[in-house]
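Hey, why these numbers?
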Amino acid sequence: MTVVTERHDARRGGSGTGFGGQQPKAVQKALAMLEAVAYLGAGATAKQIAAHTHVPPATAYRMLNFLVADGFLVRVPDLSGFALGRRTSELAYAATGSDPVRTVADVLGDMRDQTRHGLYVATIRGGTVRMVDVDPDHEVVSAPTIMRNPHAHAVGKLMLAFTPRAVDNLELRAVTAHTLVDELSLHSDLARILATGVSFENEESRIGRAALAVPVRTRNSDVVGALCLQGIAGRVDPANSALLEFLVQGASDLEGLI
């Protein structure tokens, strides 16, 4: 009786996600989804994950919700996609025996303790901006707003610089009197971004606001995201070496995390 009770308790333990030992195929699919998010990167949508793993969308949605509930995945701020959660990172650290690597939230939390400016992280894969971590204490431009006029935003211009085809057929609308609407001027700015690794927005999307964005890379140095600092025009400027160094160091700390 004791053995039966222990087995019963063990099977009842956990969060009740349904990924028990009697369902190896479900476990395999769940692990495949974690691998898919790791491959596709933060912001991967349920549709993309389902296609990547060849799992029916309805099944994928259900399993993704289980993985989020258990902390293996988290939803990105705009709820459009998923990113690896803390429990997945803990498993990786345990397997390698290495010291825990900070998460995106850890890095941004430390940075926010050191500045009054707004900070956020976005992915810029495939010519699309998706928010990964937004500042809870500051108004942050939404990803759809950036995508409507990427030439007017620091993150948008960074995305355009590293995704040249995204410039094709781009309508250069004037959001403010400072927005770059001349094609030659925009291409000159994008070339500067590629040369310096810094994107600067100065009252181009909103009067009184300025922003700096630097690329976030994978361990293989591929640019997959952007770290953006925004604040009041005149106070946020690439000429401020201390501010720029702070941002570049933050991007370095984020390497490989999105």
Notes: Confidence is low (pLDDT under 50) at residues 1-22. The two ends are 49 Å apart (CA to CA).
